[in-house]
Amino acid sequence: MSDNANPAAGTLSPAERLDALESEGVVSVDDEAVTLTLEFESTRGIYHDSYIDVPEAEYHQAVSDVFGIDPDEAADRIEELGVTREQFVALLALNSHVDGEYPLVERANMAMMITDIAPPSPVPEDVTEIDDDSFEAFLEEHDRAAVTVWKRFCDPCDRMKADLGETASAFPEGVAVAGIDGEATTEFRRRFEVEAAPSVLLFEGGECRESLRGYHSPEDIADACADVYDE
Predict the structure, then answer these.
(1) Which of 176, 185, 103 shows the shortest CA–CA distance to 139?
(2) What is the helix (H) or strand (E) element at residue 108, kind and residue range?
(3) How far is CA 130 from the centre of its chain?
């Protein structure tokens, strides 16, 4: 960080802000590639699970507590500033993770920078990935479809990935299979009440016919597919 940077004034340049995040162990910079560190991602994941799906009233109260504003004003301020839940989660994780003294406005700027640094997707490379913008089109396009839900730092997900070849074979021919990042697809999870990762949701005609929560063996998935698709 440059000598003339003044964190107390909240006027760090983007380059100085990135330097600060690197020195605090939030990001790793390698050959001009910037990624979130595993340690910070683990911290962020804890806050994500705690706040990303809380009711609006609880979310507004948390924002009120952090920013020191009236709870009744929180909703308007969130809309006015365009603050997303992902940015708020990043701010909470940052508050917990960093040791340096940074004013709230600077930490908020850092949080926005963090949300722009996309961590690696937990969806296996061999699985077609969909998101909140594309899942409806995917379900409309395929009469029979299976959507798998994945998450980072998830031992059951890793176990399911180890069985991926057998799991892929468990889906009958004609069933389109896709995967989603469970942390980044809040609309999908809310609509289909997904509360665990991994999960396997079986669809027919756009309707979720079966939802397997947590780790399931390829044999369990094959049995569920046989029931849903009358195979």
Answers:
(1) 176
(2) helix 104-115
(3) 13
pTM of the model: 0.68
Rounded-to-integer distance, Cα 145 and Cα 33, Å: 36
Helix (H) / strand (E) containing 66? helix 56-67
Rg (CA), the chain: 21
CATH, range 128-229:
3.40.30.10
Domain boundaries, the chain: 7-115, 128-229
The 10s digit of each residue's pLDDT in 108-131 is: 999 999 988 877 789 999 999 999
Q: Which residues, in sequence order, are bridge partners of residue 144?
A: 204
Cis ω on the peptide bond leading into residue 119 (within 30° of 0)?
no
Q: Which residues contact 156 (CB under 8 A, 6 or more apart)?
A: 197, 198, 214, 215
